[in-house]
Amino acid sequence: MFQFIASHYNYWIVIFLMMAGFYIVVSRGNLVKKIVGLNIFQVSVFLLYISIGKVAGGTAPILTGKPELFSNPLPHVLILTAIVVGVATTALGLALVVRIREVYGSIEEADIQAANEAMEQEDVKAAQ
Q: Tens of pLDDT along 34-81?
């Protein structure tokens, strides 16, 4: 049993990072911390795909004429694309956080919700 767990340590790291990122997203009210949690979760998915793409004893898929065992390059290519998308998503999220702070004066969820409720109550009073 210990041999099985030790031989799959990378999957245990993926599970730990995934749960840590998910916990940060769910438990924190700070928007920047939520973005950091999403990035941790995203890195865990990257590690999962890279772990799946590795073949023991496999080589790069370059045809040499000899019969060889090749590693699948597709997961690595997908992860390169996902990293670029992740950076763009993080930049967009941080830009939105900056705009939210300009409008509401805070990046805490509770403060933003309280400000929204106050604005809605003012709109109701103005409509009456």
A: 999 999 999 999 999 888 877 777 777 777 777 778 777 888 888 999
**CA distances from residue 85 to 7, 11, 48 in whole angstroms, order as listed:** 31, 23, 17
CATH code: domain 2-127 is: 1.10.287.3510
At residue 39, the pLDDT reads: 97
Angstrom distances, CA of residue 108 to CA of 53, 101, 103: 39, 9, 13
Instruction: Tell me the percentage of the chain whose pLDDT exceeds 90.
Output: 61
Round to whole Å and give the CA distance between 87 and 49.
18
| Structural domain boundaries in the chain | 2-127
